[in-house]
């Protein structure tokens, strides 16, 4: 999961040798959830490609409903992080790998500075790292994508926080992820009302 245009579909397409539609601009090509099955080290792996929150065509609520309704899965960077954390759940962070991409578009020094900021601040990835997530850099898509997925294969499967909340009888809006999206919508409405035209 990540923002529109960061390379989610490219990662999955390269790893699985599949024909997912890859966008090359800022507009999103992924509108639905795609699940691609592959075998790595003799184990069946399902890679899930989701639309990015802050999608150019879909609202965050539509995307969250798509993810919640998909039986296979049951914006801004900060909003993506908040939604992701509430979808996955803090207790499941040991099953999370945070992948940085596009290392070839920055200098080594610039890349390391950005990485330290990502990993060091709780509002970015720091909180997830503290909770057990780990970071991997994607320098070579063909090689690194295999290595990254293989490193997850030994982890026991977990149920996402969203799945647990829905099973417990909460409505989508009552879940942690639903509350994050609703809160963002309220903020947008307040900004819109506060910045409205006056006659």
Please explain how this structure is put together.
This protein is mainly alpha-helical. It has a domain of 138 residues. Helices cover 46% and strands 11% of the residues. The strands form 2 sheets. A two-stranded antiparallel ribbon has the order 1-2. Helix 4 packs across helix 5. The longest helix has 19 residues. It is globular.
Summarize this, please?
By secondary structure, the protein is mainly alpha-helical. The protein has helices at residues 8-16, 60-69, 77-88, 108-120, 122-130, 141-152, 161-167, 176-194; strands spanning 34-40, 43-49, 97-100, 134-137. It has a domain at 56-193.
What would the keywords be for this entry?
199 residues, mainly alpha, globular
Strands side by side in the biggest sheet: 1-2
Total of helices: 8
Unreliable spans: 23-30, 71-75
Proportion in β-strands? 5-15%
Largest sheet: 2 strands, antiparallel
Helix percentage range: 40-55%
Oligomer: single chain
């Amino acid at each position: 999961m990540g923002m529109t245009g960061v390379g989610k579909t490219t990662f999955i397409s390269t790893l699985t040798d599949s024909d997912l539609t890859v966008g090359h601009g800022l507009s999103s090509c992924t509108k639905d959830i795609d699940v691609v099955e592959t075998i790595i080290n003799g184990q069946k792996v399902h890679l899930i490609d989701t639309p990015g929150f802050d999608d150019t065509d879909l609202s965050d609520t539509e995307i969250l409903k798509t993810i919640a309704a998909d039986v296979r899965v049951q914006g801004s960077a900060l909003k993506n992080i908040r939604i992701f954390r509430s979808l996955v759940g803090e207790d499941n962070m040991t099953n999370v790998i945070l992948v940085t991409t596009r290392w070839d578009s920055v200098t080594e020094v610039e890349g390391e500075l950005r990485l330290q900021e990502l990993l060091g601040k709780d509002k970015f990835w720091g909180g997830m790292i503290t909770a057990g997530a780990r970071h991997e850099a994607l320098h070579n898509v063909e090689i690194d994508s295999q290595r990254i997925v293989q490193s997850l294969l030994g982890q026991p499967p977990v149920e996402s926080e969203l799945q647990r909340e829905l099973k417990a009888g909460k409505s989508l809006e009552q879940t942690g992820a639903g509350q994050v999206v609703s809160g963002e919508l309220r903020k947008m409405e307040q900004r819109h009302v506060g910045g409205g035209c006056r006659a």
